[in-house]
Amino acid sequence: MYEGTMKTHAFGWSLMVLGVLAGPLTAENWPAWRGAGGNGAVTGKQPPLDLAGKLLWKTELPGRGCSTPIVWENRVYVTSPIGDQDGLLAFDAAGKELWRRTFGSLTPGRGQRVGSAANSSPVTDGEVVVVYFKSGTVACLDLEGKVRWQINLQQKYGKDTLWWDQGTSPVFAAGRVVIAVMQTGGESYLVSLDRKTGNEVWKTPRKYQTGEESGDAYTTPHVVKVNGAELIVTWGADHLTAHDAATGKLVWECGGFNPKRTATQRVIASAVVGDGLAVVPFKRGDSLAAIRLDGRGDVSESHWAWRDDDCGADAVSPVLHEGKVYVLKDGGPQRGRLTCLDAKTGKRLWDSTLPKAAQVYYSSPVVAGDRFFCVREDGILVSGQIGDAGLTDVKSHPLEEGVIASPVGVDGRLILRSDKHLFCFGEK
Q1: Rounded distance between C-alpha atoms, residue 50 and residue 43, angstroms
Q2: What 3-state DSSP class applies to 368?
Q3: How far apart are CA 262 and CA 249, in angstroms?
Q4: N or C: which end of the chain has fewer CB within 10 A?
Q5: What is the pLDDT of residue 159?
Q6: Which residues are registered as beta bridge partners of 311?
Q7: Rounded CA gap, 316 and 288, in Å?
């Protein structure tokens, strides 16, 4: 993901019982890849449904990246290649570049459309911004761009063996920076880094026996509080796990997603979390399941709440908003099917079909109030009104550039990054 003065303050963590530990779910900020709640949804002022003539600004980026921007108090931060370096840029609310920083040599993407040197999104707590790159570099900066610390996970803990380009983004947990590294070959682990120094606080192995490539995961963890304990809930390597955020100790693990250890079951789409459940896409887009979060030990047989083997997404993460899960079928013959389910029961409420095309979706959708936004890989931005019976008033808006990154809804604006530019839509 992308000098003036700016008021900064500590990120005010709010608690949802058996839910996501996140900042206030307002239209003011989008502090992480999937927003303040980690579920791709935002309340408050909505972006316009019809984006024709609503482009507020468009700013060229110095390199192609697939990371999603974040927003904090009228500033937009996005990671990007800058020459042959890993970089971070900051823009003001009008799209003017405020500053850029580089962190050393980048590791190029594999040349695929879905990959880049900068796939992971930044995260902020309102005081610092943390970035992570395919090179293994992790850096922490203040909001004015001063680097506080920088380390390289691959130099410390071993090389990247993922078949494709890195996808997971950092999270804050127990006041520290946590990153998940999940790969079939090499070391797999969760690591907690001191927010002030970058020093290791704890490092916990997270290694499971899987089929070939099935241990590779590109997902981002959730931080939740369950029965008073702060947990890091992580999806990958055929298992959903919960670790104590303070110590890294495994609290529970749930298998059963791939009991025969079938190969190539790598996971890209992240889970969504709420109402005491984690809703998990698996089986390469064929299946969806909900796992209860209040377990201890091995809960592989006891904590499945529901399962749907005719609904799922491979690369596109679902949205969870106001007790409903929205799942966009991203590829295959049914690509463009949007399904709405009740999060607690898994009951299907409706299906809608987006405009058909040969292209697929990699960008994860956003729900802003009762409006839905998603972007196809060819840069067609689709919007629609969410109703009790499905999606209505569906509109398509061409960006005329490829898009892998996910859109951001904040303060009545829709912000997204394409292969070449940062776009901002809204009412003038």
Answers
A1: 18
A2: strand
A3: 28
A4: C
A5: 95
A6: none
A7: 13
The segments of the chain whose pLDDT lies below 70 read: 1-27
HSE of 95, CA atoms in CB hemisphere, 13 A:
18
Residue 276 region by backbone torsions, left for phi larger than 0, else alpha for psi between -120 and 50, else beta: left
Question: How far apart are the C-alpha atoms of 239 and 405, rounded to whole Å?
Answer: 26
Share of the chain above pLDDT 70, in %: 94
Residue 83, Cβ neighbours under 10 Å: how many?
Answer: 10
At 184, the amino acid letter reads: T
Phi, psi (rounded to 5 degrees) for 396: -120, 135
Q: What is the DSSP string of 375-428?
A: E-TTSEEEEEEEETTEEEEEEEEE-SS---SPPEEETTEEEEE-SSEEEEE---
Separation between Cα atoms, residue 7 and residue 176, nearest integer Å: 22
Closest listed residue to residue 234, CA positions, set 198, 264, 204, 196:
204
Torsion over CA of 428, 66, 340 and 180, rounded to 10 degrees? -130
Phi and psi at residue 318, to the nearest 5°: -70, 175
Q: What pLDDT is recorded for position 2?
A: 27
| Burial of residue 32 (number of CB atoms within 10 Å: 0-12, 13-18, 19+) | buried
Rounded CA-CA distance 397/122 in Å is: 27
**Is residue 236 packed enough to be buried (19+ CB in 10 Å), middle (13-18) or exposed (0-12)?**
buried
How far apart are the C-alpha atoms of 22 and 33, rounded to whole Å? Answer: 12
Tens digit of pLDDT for each residue in 288-333? Answer: 999 999 999 999 999 999 999 999 999 999 999 999 999 999 999 9
Q: What is the DSSP string of 168-181?
A: ---EEETTEEEEEE
Model pTM above 0.90: yes
Structure tokens at 84: 């042959």
User: Quick one: pLDDT at residue 21?
Assistant: 53
| Structural domains for the chain | 19-425 (2.130.10.10)
